[in-house]
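Single-chain item
Fold in token form
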Amino acid sequence: MFVYREGKQEPPAFFVPYHKMNANAGYLSHYGNFMYLRFIRDNPKSTPAEKRQAIREIAICERKLNWWLRHPNLEPAVISAGKARLHNLWRNRG
């Protein structure tokens, strides 16, 4: 397991009402995980088992990203800037 496990739900440390959730931070957190999982999947040094695990977790991550995209507090401009920042960080690695 890299980031996600199918069917696992962790109880939150505290409950935040849906309308007060920070959708931008939630989305960008999962998008960062998505970038990491894609790196593992596409890295020639990753083992076949690591690639299979990354592919399974990417499916979970995409579901979470889609959930955040439907949140009413999501701000497209903030998401766009955050994604650009994450792409830049990954581009400058290695």
User: Anything to note?
Assistant: Residues 12 and 48 are 33 Å apart (CA to CA). Residues 22-91 form one domain.
